[in-house]
Amino acid sequence: MSGMLCNHSPATPWPPSIILRPLLGHSIDHLSIILQPPLSHPVGGVAATIVGYAYLIEFLMATSSNNTFIAILCSMLFGTADSFEPVYWAVIVVFCVVLNTRPQLYMTVNAISTAFACVYLVCLLCIGASRLDYSRVFHTVMADGSVSTAIFPYGIYGVFNAIPFALYLYIGFEVIPVAAEETLAIETSMPYSMWSSTGTLVTLGTLVVIITAGMPPGVQALSASELPFVDSMSVIFGITPGSTAQKVLIASMIPGIAVPMLNNFFGCSRYVYGLARGGYLPTFLAITSKGNSTGHNRAPVIALVVVGCLVMVLCYGMTSPFSMLDLYLLNASTMFALAAYFADSVVYIKVPRQAKSPFGIPGAVLVIIITGGSFGMLMYLQKLWQNLGIAVAIFVACVIPYYIIVIKRNLIETPESL
Fold this sequence. Notes:
- Helix content is 67%, strand content 1%.
- The chain contains 14 helices and two strands.
- Helix 3 (42-78) runs antiparallel to helix 12, helix 6 packs across helix 13 and helix 10 packs across helix 11.
- The longest helix has 37 residues, at 42-78.
């Protein structure tokens, strides 16, 4: 199952991801870092900047990845050429911007779509489980095309190489606290949302990993497939590739795939809004719409438009003909996520705060060990990560003086300083 870490098998090494993400529960309290940074503590201000920017970069990358994947599905569904995909990007982005200008409508659409996606996924997994061959679950397609039955054929190196893929099982988790200003009874609803979402992701993620790895037509065929789940269901239902029935199957999966896009786009716009309102980005990005007659249901319209433009640019980068650019951008998302988790945990230990993690200081220390160890091993194992590590170091080196020279002065005039 460690093969996915090396991108040779549809099976993913789920144990590291299950251990990593639930222990990051405290890190999604980052909203209090971004929106209410402890300005009296020098580490807090710099860390708030690094964490806020890192999360924003991570989710911009993830949103762009979601958008390009949906466009690929649309191309397959409607039979259009690859050159037409930018049109799909633009339509999806415009839809997200318009929907997010009505937060209450967005929340309703998102809740319905999420419920549909979860129920639909469970139904498909139940169908897949009826054809599950458990002996295939631990099959891994090796680099030479052979199949290994070892549980960890690539050893500990495979586990660390798989962490970027494992993190994608839980992408979007950090969006939850960003919705705090649209939430009633934050003290009770936020912790419940965090725990319930963690449980849902761990349960469904584990089932997907195990069941899909053991479904027909097997790991060798699925590892070479663009849409392994669609191909597997086509075999189970006896659907002919390219037929109308297969297009219906693809179309039925788009709502579920659109849910992460909606969540990530929402999170991006709120990150930009929160950082701008706090003085970490130009304040005009915090301009909101008028809302309804009571002043509620406002939306950060400027931030939404800016995020939409950035997503379009990144979509082009991820599908660019320039060699390795798409791989660099996707791995950069994981790298900035790990950097944010690491910095978040350091801040949690060093800076007193009202919001307490259920794991406390020991949990923060464990997250530092896991993220720091993962970061270090990936830097050691992969040349790509070594190059990205230099980029992150340059990013941090630039952020610190920028905070001291520019941001720190802007914080004086922001609501967070009151």
